[in-house]
Design brief:
This protein has 16 helices and eleven strands. By secondary structure, it is α/β, with parallel strands linked by helices. It folds into three domains: about 5-145, Rossmann fold (3-Layer(aba) Sandwich), CATH 3.40.50; about 150-265 and about 280-305, no CATH class; about 315-390, Orthogonal Bundle (Rna Polymerase Sigma Factor, Chain: A).
């Protein structure tokens, strides 16, 4: 049996590193033919040497030049166009899409257009261009396999089931680090506190999104586009223990759940080997040790980003791309301590209110909406800062 050929987009991030750990454990089954990162060329170089990968890519053109100078034996691709070209040149069997933010959209589209299966970890492409991605995959005969733990749970629960029998999806949320805080306390939250997630160890951007519940809103988009359900069929349920990763309720009242310890290596492992279910030595769930499992409704008044995600999704057109871009800018500014925690949903809502929507038919349409939202959000922040000194 020939090993499955993998190209990992976002190899230096949390998902990419854990994907490579699984590759290292199954050298006869998995082979890396390409690696890509955003800016960390030193770590990327180390990974390429460790896994004997001749082809790499970097989203940042400048650091790509530094890597080329430091490692003349490597084939280095740069920028979004370069990453898309790298996908076509390496001809992988599976692309792992784990580049944070919208930067992973173009290479993911290139993979799907080539008929290559994609194991998708980052949510932003499906938020900004869900219909474009799914129609491209269907036309090319490519499969989209989710890596995100909750979406993987739904994917697993639906194996062998008819989609028309789905009545409702129960999407679980950990609640993030601030579930017990009062609304007035959120204004004092720091980036360091937001990055201290109680259950999962993730990258900075997705961890902040988890704290605001925007991450859960993005997962609603994933469910909509991957499984063809309506937004009103998706119910978010706060489950602090993160043992039940999500559930599907069927038309006869039966409910199927996928359960495991909160360990991202499990959904990554499932996605890399899909459609096989391959044995591993990862820790097992002990229900007695897990203790009581609790559930609650999310507080959308305290965390309005979840409400905004639903509203943008139902409005459609270019609103989801604006939602994503405005949030990306806001999170970056929050991490730089230029805005407060409560400014995150404020900026997103203002961008959505100001936007004049248009249809998303092509990749260029996504980029147009993305650029507008980024410019608007940055300008709004500059105006807010100016008002402070008037």
């Amino acid at each position: 049996m020939q090993p499955k050929r993998l190209l990992i987009l976002g190899s230096t991030g949390s998902i990419g590193v854990q994907s490579l750990q699984i590759v290292a454990a199954y050298p006869q089954r998995l082979q890396v033919v390409g690696l890509a990162a955003g800016h960390n060329w030193q770590r990327l170089h180390q990974q390429a040497e460790e896994f004997s990968v001749p082809t790499v890519g970097l989203a940042d053109q400048r650091v790509a030049e530094e890597l080329s100078a430091a490692a003349p034996g490597l084939q280095v691709y740069a920028g979004e166009d370069g990453l898309a070209e790298m996908v076509r040149v390496t001809e992988p069997d599976l692309v792992v899409g784990a580049i944070s933010g919208i930067g992973g959209l173009q290479p993911v589209m290139a993979a799907l257009e080539a008929g290559c299966d994609v194991a998708l970890a980052n949510k932003e492409p499906l938020v900004a261009a869900g219909e474009l991605i799914t129609t491209t995959a269907a036309r090319a005969g490519a499969h989209l396999v989710p890596i995100d733990s909750e979406i993987s749970a739904i994917f697993q629960c639906l194996q062998g089931q008819r989609r028309e029998d789905v009545e409702k999806i129960l999407l679980t949320a950990s609640g993030g680090p601030f579930a017990e805080l009062q609304a007035e306390e959120l204004s004092e939250v720091t980036p360091q506190q937001a990055l201290d997630h109680p259950t999962w160890k993730m990258g900075a951007k997705v961890t902040v999104d988890s704290a605001t519940l925007m991450n859960k809103g993005f997962e609603v988009f994933e469910l909509k586009w991957l499984f063809g359900v309506e937004f009103d069929q998706i119910e978010v349920v706060v489950h602090h223990q993160s043992v039940i990763h999500s559930l599907v309720q069927f038309c006869d009242g039966s409910v199927l759940a996928q359960m495991s310890l909160p360990d991202m290596r499990l959904p990554i492992h499932y996605a890399l080997f899909y459609p096989e279910r391959v044995g591993n030595d990862l820790p097992r769930l002990d229900l007695v040790e897990a203790g009581p499992l609790t559930f609650a409704e999310p507080d959308v008044r305290k965390f309005p980003n979840l409400r905004l995600a639903y509203e943008a999704g139902k409005a459609g057109a270019s609103y989801p791309a604006v939602l994503n871009a405005a949030n990306e800018v806001a999170v970056d500014l929050f991490l730089q301590e230029e805005i407060g925690f409560n400014d995150l949903p404020f900026l997103v809502e203002r961008a959505l209110e100001a936007h004049e929507p248009f249809a998303i038919d092509y990749l260029q349409d996504v980029k147009q909406a993305d650029t507008w939202a980024r410019d608007y959000t940055r300008q709004l922040v500059e105006e807010m800062e100016g008002d402070q000194y008037d």
